[in-house]
Write a structure and sequence with these properties.
Blueprint: E1 2-4, H1 26-29, E2 40-48, E3 56-64, H2 69-83, E4 86-88, E5 96-102, E6 110-120, E7 123-134, E8 137-146, H3 154-168
Antiparallel strand pairs: 1-2, 2-3, 3-8, 4-5, 5-6, 6-7, 7-8
């Protein structure tokens, strides 16, 4: 396993309107980026490629907002996925992306689970996220590169991340 620190930039205060093509919103739809301007962010990534045909990567990102940005980021994510549940791949390969808000564990003040996948030819890759809001903080746990349907660890990772945050504040 490798542990690395990674931080994807967020979209800031600009919220994409209906004129923005869904293909331009893929980082927002996948919950890798969010709307809003966090006052602090921290991230950690754990990965393993040993003994599996599907390399596995999990990451945890903490975003703290000075205002109601955590609630707005989650609401925006749900709205964007409702608008763009399926997106043609921006490349010329005929592939597609699918995004869905699905039932997940009820954690924190509110939580959302996002399942995402991309298909190109006969290959499908899945990645999933659980976002948990605690006051003005979002704890976001991503799992990616997993075998389609093999996301058993995600709820436990989200619960552990939430416990860690509640215990240590980080």
């Amino acid at each position: 396993m490798d542990i690395a620190t990674v931080m994807a930039p967020d979209a800031g205060r600009r919220r994409p309107g209906p004129e923005v093509p869904c293909a331009d919103m893929i980082p927002l739809l996948s919950a890798n980026r969010l709307t809003g301007a966090p006052s602090a962010m921290a991230a950690a990534t754990v990965s393993s490629g040993e003994g599996s045909d599907y390399p596995w990567v999990a990451s945890e990102v903490l975003r703290t907002y000075a205002d109601d940005g955590a609630r707005e980021a989650m609401a925006d994510l749900r709205t964007f996925i409702g608008r763009c549940p399926a997106v043609a791949s921006p490349g010329q390969d005929g592939g597609s992306y699918r995004f869905a808000v699905v039932p997940g564990p009820r954690l924190g003040d509110e939580s959302t689970r996002v399942d995402a996948s991309t298909t190109s030819g006969s290959i499908t890759l899945a990645w999933d996220s659980i976002l948990v809001r605690i006051g003005t903080t979002l704890v976001v746990v991503h799992e990616q590169g997993n075998e389609p349907g093999g996301d058993d660890h995600l709820p436990r990772l989200a619960e552990a991340a939430l416990r860690s945050y509640q215990t240590t504040g980080s």
